[in-house]
Amino acid sequence: MMKNYAGKKMVIFLITLLLLLSFNVKSVSYKKEKVRIALYDSISPSVKLIESSLHYSWNAENGKYEMDVKRIDFKDVMNGSLKNYDVLIIGASGRQYFHALIPKWKEEVKEFIENGGGYIGICGGANIASMGYEKPHTFLDFIINIASLHIVDAYINDDQDEEWQYLWKEGGRANIAIKNEIMEGDIFAGMKKRYITYGGGPGLYKINNAKGLAKYVEEPSDIAPLHYWIWAGKWIPYKTIKTDIKGYYSSVETIYGKGKVVIFGGHPEIPPRINGSVDEFFGLSIYGIPRFVYSWVGGEQMNWSYNWWILRRAVAYVCNLPLPPSNELYVYVNPPSDGKIEAYAENAEKVEFYVDGNLFSIDYNPPFKIKYDMKGEHVIKAVAFDRNGGEAWNERIVNIQ
């Protein structure tokens, strides 16, 4: 009897232990948290790349974080909608200089950051966050000085007849690779140098409370020389454009009120082309203006997501979240062809295909693709997974008659 009783007690103990363990496992299961990103809209093509880079989620010890990016504009800032977001990103845009001439617009943005919202500025978005020009010369310099938010204690070296020419003369393919020396900071994941695309952004200087994260160690006009051109029976170059931002900070971080701020003079969203060369020709700029423009050709083209991890980590950083890994991850749904749809992917272990929100197929081997012959309009979504559990996604509306 005693032996049976002891046996029953042991069974009860084991069942109880298993139940306790099962409850414990349930209590530490992953939660999914949305990171609400407000992306200020722009006519610049790079805004689409910022948006694509942030179609991303990653795992951390305490849960899963998913970036939810939405484009906003002037009216969204004016009606107080920033309070619905965790971070504001302003990229390569000029419209914010004029929007910030309205005091309420400027107050809404500064109040959002002061109350704990994150801010990331890229190129023009870095200019407006700064102290502006120490010695303004042109009309636009004075406009930028009036518009500047003064949330980063750094002046900008970004002259109209020098650095800005890499924007004004852009002919649509301007992914000039400029080497950056990484000073410190978790965002760059301990790297010592990195090639980042340059497109006319500022060199930052005279920082006090702010912290320099990276410096330009190459001069854009040495790497990619541009010229002013004149007609003299034929087009001839009459003056070489000279920049002077080598040795200036290319990235800076600071605290404004309760909010974290990170700004970039370069473009982590645009994949650089290393060891390319300049091709100058008469054509249309990216703003539709006929003039002498340039393209950056040859060399080695890096992957689309080559530097996207920098931007993703910056978002997590200003939101006080665990940082995602410093690896590439990207997927793009190509148009249907020959009865199939292929998804181009970078650093993906597998790709899941969804049709109208329903899982359709999983492919573990590149080229990732599905057979497709469905008639009518459908939404095709591809989700790429890396080995760390990170996810990137892209979707396309397909209409086959």
Describe the structure in brief.
By secondary structure, the chain is an alpha+beta fold.
**Tally of contiguous helical segments:** 10
CATH superfamily grouping of the largest domain: Class I glutamine amidotransferase (GATase) domain
Can you summarize the main beta sheet? 14 strands, mixed
Structural class: alpha+beta
- CATH fold title of the largest domain: Rossmann fold
Label the overall shape: globular
Poorly predicted regions: 1-9, 11-29
Rg over CA atoms: 25 Å
Mean pLDDT: 92
Assembly annotation = single chain
Q: What spatial order of strands do you see in the largest sheet?
A: 8-7-10-13-14-5-4-1-3-2-25-24-21-22
**Beta content:** 35-45%
Q: Class of the largest domain in CATH?
A: Alpha Beta
Q: Distance between termini? A: 79 Å
Helix content: 10-25%
Number of domains: 2
Named at the architecture level, the CATH assignment of the largest domain is 3-Layer(aba) Sandwich
Question: How many strand elements?
Answer: 25
Characterization of the model:
The chain has two domains: 32-225 and 242-275 and 302-318, Rossmann fold (3-Layer(aba) Sandwich), CATH 3.40.50; 330-400, Immunoglobulins (Immunoglobulin-like). The chain has ten helices and 25 strands. Strands 8-7-10-13-14-5-4-1-3-2-25-24-21-22 form a 14-stranded mixed beta sheet. The protein is an alpha+beta fold. The relative contact order is 0.12.
